[in-house]
TrEMBL record, chain A:
Alphabetized UniProt keyword annotations: ATP-binding, Cell membrane, Membrane, Nucleotide-binding, Translocase, Transport
GO CC terms, sorted: ATP-binding cassette (ABC) transporter complex
SUPFAM superfamilies: P-loop containing nucleoside triphosphate hydrolases
Protein's name according to its UniProt entry: ATPase component of general energizing module of ECF transporter
Keyword flag Secreted: no
Family: Belongs to the ABC transporter superfamily.
Automatic annotation (TrEMBL), chain B:
Gene3D superfamilies to which the protein is assigned, alphabetical: P-loop containing nucleotide triphosphate hydrolases
Keyword RNA-binding attached: no
Membrane disposition: Peripheral membrane protein
Organism the protein comes from: Pediococcus damnosus
Protein name stated in the entry: Energy-coupling factor transporter ATP-binding protein EcfA2
The protein's role, per its UniProt record: ATP-binding (A) component of a common energy-coupling factor (ECF) ABC-transporter complex.
Predominant location category: membrane
Domain ABC transporter: 3-246
Known partners and oligomeric status: Forms a stable energy-coupling factor (ECF) transporter complex composed of 2 membrane-embedded substrate-binding proteins (S component), 2 ATP-binding proteins (A component) and 2 transmembrane proteins (T component).
GO molecular function, a single term: ATP hydrolysis activity
Enzyme nomenclature, EC number: 7.-.-.-
Family designation: Belongs to the ABC transporter superfamily. Energy-coupling factor EcfA family.
UniProtKB/TrEMBL annotation, chain C:
GO annotation, cellular component aspect: plasma membrane
Family: Belongs to the energy-coupling factor EcfT family.
Name listed for the protein in its UniProt record: Energy-coupling factor transporter transmembrane protein EcfT
Membrane-related topology note: Multi-pass membrane protein
Organism field: Pediococcus damnosus
């Protein structure tokens, strides 16, 4: 598997004297992987997302996206490989209607009209928003707007999708909808997904989790490994998966629980095995 | 202070092509000193409901009794000010309402509008900033220099500064990270224990409902479709699933255990309740390990 | 939950709705110019018939047009009174200092009433049947020749369409902020002018802050989606001149010819 994103010794501060928002950050993401970057608000995760897309001007460190080194000259090539979805559903909706918004990126790429039409249609059906194509943004819920944003990204056929806290302003239904669509897309199109979030529940699909704090990577690993450090997660202002929380409570009640990480289903299974299985 | 709704309806833009009935025949009572949680999807009428709690909206039909004041469609917009002092609303993303040059002036804004002198208001600002867990040194800073979480606390302090008897919270933790969410909810929990507030909380966080609420109102399409204690409302997991509403994680977990044959006398709402139940199961099986 | 859509555009499927916004814009303009050449009742009758046929072809409820005229009734009435009191010529019925009521004055006032009403009806028809974004598209297309003198037509059109797109968001935002400040004891309806102006500050500042934040977010999102200026972009929404536009142009041209013929009466 080749490297889709490589970040090496990336350092960035918003102003000269402030503490760096990113401090010597290095990691790689393989093609087709789902990587989650978690950290509390202000930990530097959104800065990192913007750096990857060449939206901030960093001086120290290097970024390669699909083999291309990110420079002032290559930034538009790099951007064409990355689709980004931002936090606020309302503030990234450029078009007057759903279909106009999906077409915005294609217009920028000077895609011919017929092809544009076909790609808009396809992208809208991919996110189940075809029936809403003539709706205006104020007629949509937050979750629907984010699905439109996703359609805008899909239409441009990027290799990487970056979700920059894309669910943090949505209600649970909107959140489930958008994650469901992404899961499906990743499976079908093999897109590399980088999701930036503070919701630990949204990292269960990840192949790898990177934990960020004060601009530094404090831990990297598979979800099971990261989840088992529940003390660290809590200390960093994050949450712990429910099964881990329950384990802590059970340990306090002198019930011995297995060391390895179980998701909720696994945990129910374990309880059944220990208590009900004859 | 109690608030009673009697057959309240509310229609936006009546008589136009955009007419929309947001509340349909709502009757309920918010008890004095209770914590009431309002749950439901976006667009279920929750926000419209909230705005009736201090007469920002007046019902199109029916009556709202706020303490001893009766609000109907005929109520004049004058003389509502004393009511607004009694019922404080923390809107969604309240940091978006900050405007003053300093944090102190912003917090003092409410009290001054309700007739406090500048000195009184400044004294209140000092009390409030400590109450929401920020250092006094923040008072002289511009609210726009603060972090998002701090701005939210300042905005909350600005509402608490009016010493309301009822506190209405519209998704007070939206957009915060888990640490921030825990701290803010803790703040309201402590406050309620200390000062005996009536709190109305709109939230999607069912954990918070389980931990803090005495009464739950479930809204859908402008109607109250269920209400009762958290235990009663969350007992019907299947019904809530059908409505695409969440249940507390512990209830959900116990529900899954039930499917595998575990028997609960009542579904647990919190982690510690569930852990107790599981500990009981182990005890019964005589396998409690040390 | 504010369901009011900006611009009072009524989305329907009709002959007028399906017309190219450029032809609607040009024909409305033509109508307004031609009506200033009207000098007798026959012309007004002809133009009124054209206006009513156009309104019928839009399938929009006539009540909405009446609603459009109502707020402007005062201005019309005021202009009419001026015309009646100061108009001279023909028979004089009443006279006091510089004021006089004459038959020509009354006739002119009646003309003004009809003229204003027809102009309002036809411009209301344009805004009710054409979404703001279509109007912005039409302007972009019609202003294209200005590119020769380096006028940034694409950028201006995009600016206009984004501004239109954010009007409802900012209106919602204003309402929320007003509610929040009202809940903190602000009474917007009372006080003298200075007190009232002071009360605007707690609304304006948060609104500015939010507008700037939005602008920043939007700029970032646009850049991330590959926006690098207007030149070289293709367009998703194409304007297409169809038979119905030719037909409408024909009707309006005939009307214009008719008006000039009737002037000779």
């Amino acid at each position: 598997m080749n490297e889709m994103i490589k970040v090496s010794h990336l350092t960035y501060a918003y102003t000269q004297n402030s503490q760096p928002a990113l401090d010597d950050v290095s990691f790689t993401i393989s093609s087709g992987d789902w990587v989650a970057i978690v950290g509390h608000n202000g930990s530097g995760k959104s800065t990192l997302a913007q750096a990857l897309d060449g939206l901030i001007d960093f001086k120290l460190g290097n970024i390669w996206v699909d083999g291309t080194k990110l420079t002032e000259q290559s930034v538009w090539t790099v951007r064409s490989n990355i689709g980004m979805i931002f936090q606020n559903p309302d503030n990234q909706f450029v078009g007057a209607t759903v279909e106009d918004d999906v077409a915005f990126g294609l217009e920028n790429m000077a895609v011919p009209h017929d092809e544009m039409q076909a790609r808009v249609d396809e992208a809208l059906s991919e996110v189940h928003m075809s029936d809403f194509r003539r709706k205006q943004p104020e007629q949509l819920s937050g979750g629907q707007k984010q699905r439109v944003a996703l359609a805008g990204v899909i239409a441009m056929q990027p290799k990487i999708i970056i979700l920059d806290e894309a669910t943090s302003m949505l209600d649970p239904v909107g959140r489930r909808e958008i994650l469901g669509v992404i899961r499906k897309l990743k499976k079908r199109l093999g897109i590399t997904v980088l999701s930036i979030t503070h919701e630990i529940d949204e990292t269960t699909d990840a192949d790898k989790i990177i934990v960020l704090n004060d601009g530094k990577i404090v831990s990297t690993g598979a979800p099971e490994t990261i989840y088992s450090h529940s003390g660290l997660l809590l200390k960093l202002g994050l949450d712990v998966p429910y099964s881990q929380r329950l384990k802590r409570e059970l340990t306090q009640r002198h019930i011995k629980t297995p060391e390895t990480y179980f998701d909720e289903e696994g945990m129910v299974d374990w309880l059944w095995q220990s208590l009900l299985k004859k | 202070m109690a608030i009673t709704f009697k057959e309240v309806t509310y229609t936006y833009s009546p008589g136009t092509p955009f007419e929309f009935q947001a509340l349909k025949n709502i009757s309920t009572k918010i008890e004095d000193n209770s914590v009431t949680a309002v749950i439901g999807h976006t667009g279920s009428g929750k926000s419209t409901f909230l705005q009736h709690l201090n007469a920002l909206l007046k019902p199109t039909g029916g009556t709202v009794m706020i303490g001893n004041t009766t609000i109907t469609s005929e109520t004049s917009n004058k003389n509502l000010k004393p009511l607004r002092k009694k019922v404080g609303i923390v809107f969604q993303f309240p940091e978006n309402q900050l405007f003053a040059e300093t944090v102190e002036k912003d917090i003092a804004f409410g009290p001054e509008n309700f007739g406090s002198t500048a000195e009184e208001a400044s004294k209140i600002a000092k009390e409030m900033i400590t109450l929401v867990g920020l250092p006094e040194s923040v008072l002289s800073r511009s609210p726009f220099e603060l972090s998002g979480g701090q701005m939210r606390r300042v905005a909350i302090a600005g509402v608490l500064a009016m010493h309301p008897e009822v506190l209405v919270l519209d998704e007070p933790t939206a957009g915060l990270d888990p640490g921030g969410r825990r701290e803010i909810m803790q703040l309201f929990g402590d406050l309620q224990k200390k000062q005996k507030f009536t709190i109305v909380l709109v939230t999607h966080q069912m954990e918070d409902v389980a931990n803090y609420a005495d009464h739950v109102i479930v809204m859908e399409h402008g109607k109250i479709v269920k209400e009762g204690s958290p235990r009663a409302v969350f007992a019907n997991v299947e019904w809530l699933h059908e409505k695409q509403l969440d249940v507390p994680a512990s209830t959900e977990f116990a529900f899954e255990m039930q499917k595998r044959g575990f028997q609960f006398t009542r579904l647990p709402l919190t982690e510690s309740e569930l852990a107790d139940d599981i500990a009981d199961f182990f005890k019964k099986r005589g396998q409690t390990h040390e | 939950m504010n369901k009011i859509l900006f611009g009072r555009y009524i989305p329907l499927d009709s002959f007028v709705h399906r017309m190219d916004p450029r032809s609607k814009l040009i024909l409305s303009f033509l109508y307004v110019i031609v009506i200033f050449f009207a000098n007798n009742w026959w012309i007004y009758l002809l133009m009124a018939v054209v206006a009513f046929v156009s309104i019928l072809a839009s399938k929009i409820n006539f009540k909405l047009f009446v609603d459009g005229v109502m707020p402007l009734l005062w201005i019309i009435a005021f202009t009419m009174v001026i015309q009646i009191l100061f108009g001279t010529g023909g028979q004089t019925y009443w006279h006091w200092g510089i004021f006089s009521i004459t038959s020509v004055g009354i006739l002119n006032a009646a003309y003004i009433f009809v003229r204003f009403t027809l102009i309002i009806l036809i411009s209301t028809l344009l805004t009710l049947s054409t979404s703001p974004i279509q109007i912005s598209d039409a302007l972009e297309s019609l202003l294209m020749p200005l590119r020769k003198i380096h006028f940034p037509v694409y950028e201006v059109a995009l600016m206009l369409s984004i501004a239109l797109r954010f009007v409802p968001s900012l209106m919602d935002e204003t309402e929320t902020i007003m509610n929040a400040q009202r809940a903190r004891g602000v009474d917007f309806g009372t006080g003298n002018i200075i007190q009232r102006l002071k009360k605007i500050i707690p609304i304006l500042i948060p609104l500015f802050v939010s507008a700037f934040n939005r602008a920043e977010d939007l700029a970032t999102a646009m850049e991330a989606r590959g926006y690098r200026g207007g030149a070289g972009r293709t367009k998703y929404r194409l304007l297409k001149w169809e038979t119905r536009d030719t037909l409408a142009t024909l009707v309006y041209s005939l009307m214009a010819i008719g008006v000039f013929a009737l002037r000779l009466l």
